Every structure is written in C-alpha cells, then in structure tokens.
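Late entry, evening session. Most of the bench is empty. Finally got around to the prediction I had been postponing all week. Sequence below, unchanged from the version circulated by S.P.
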Amino acid sequence: MQDMIGVLYEPLLETVYMVGVSTLFTVLIGLPLGTVIVITSDNHIMPKKVLNTVLSYIVNITRSFPFIILMISIFPLTKFIVGKKIGTTAAIVPLVFAATPFFARLVETSLREIPWGVIEAALSMGSTTMQIIRRVMIPEALSSIVLGITTTVISILGYSAMAGSIGGGGLGDLAIMYGYQRWQTDIMIITVIVLVILVQIIQSIGNRIAKRLDKK
C-alpha cells in the first residue's frame, strides 16, 4: 500500500497542477469570449455581425479537433510558449486550447438564459455595455457559469489523462506506463478509481457552490 501511494503521489500532483492552471486560463479567456459572442449577436446590446461570425467560426473549428490531434498540431506553439513540446507544463497549452471554446459555449448558453427584460431594464436606466455585463449578466448567470466551470474542469481532467499518452505526465502517463507497457493491471485500476473520485469531488463542490449562488 505504501508503494502504491508512492507511485501515485507525483502523478496526482502533476494532474492537479495541469488541471488547475489550465482551468484558470480557460476561464480567463473563455468567459470574455463567450460574453462577446452573446452581446455581439443580433438584437443584443452590441450587435456586430462580422465579429460574431468570426468568433463563432473560430470556436467551432477549434472544438472540432480531437484533443490528441490538437495537441500534436500545436507542438510548435507549445514549444514557443513554454520552451518544450512535451511534459506537464507543456500539456497546459493544448489543454487550454481544447477547453476554452468548450467553456465559451457554456458561458454563451448561460448568458442567453437571462430574461431579456432584465437586460432591457438596465438599458432603460442608461447602463453602459460594461455595466450591464458586470452588474447584470454575469451576476444573473453566475450559478449556471459555475456549473459550466465544473463541467469544464472535469473535461480538462479527461483531456489531461489523454495527454499522458504522448508524454504529458500525470495520471494518464502513469496508467500508460504501468498499466499498458508493464501490464500492471492493479496500477491501472487504482488510477481509474482515483480519477473517478476526483470527478465526484469536483462535481460535488461545483454543485454546492452553484446552489448557493442560485437566485431562483
């Protein structure tokens, strides 16, 4: 048991590091991106058809790439940003690229659920675009956005496991190295169990936070 913990410890930390940093950058990029897609759509507070179309196409194209292909295809960019193509830190770049458009669409869905009457009331009081976004749209959709973040974190966790297949480190790398290459089935089973537990913890925390923020 002691040996098992020792084997799992470092890969688990690597996975938490990858998922945590990737989630941070995904939210920082995806939240504004999803918001801009909403407000620039027809009949919203800042309609700009060309910008909206371009951003929507970029999001759709990026989302269509299978993660492994995406990871390999942006190796040059990854090396430019972090100085290497593979490794735990290098895996963060494709993780962010894969998760950001996914999260942006979740943000878009959350913001579109806001009753137009609420936004219209803010417009009638002379609120600026930024004031409506910050004081009306984001607060109103915050509970749903938190659930979107939760779903995104779980997706990133799954992507990080796939990243291990080509040297990304973490629990995925552990499962490949011991469970597949060395035929140590017990390590693979434990790795899967740990991933399942992580998903349950993340979902539980996300649900609780969202419930507290829900104004309905």
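Two things to note before I forget:
The mean pLDDT is 89.
The radius of gyration is 20 Å.
Will write this up properly tomorrow.
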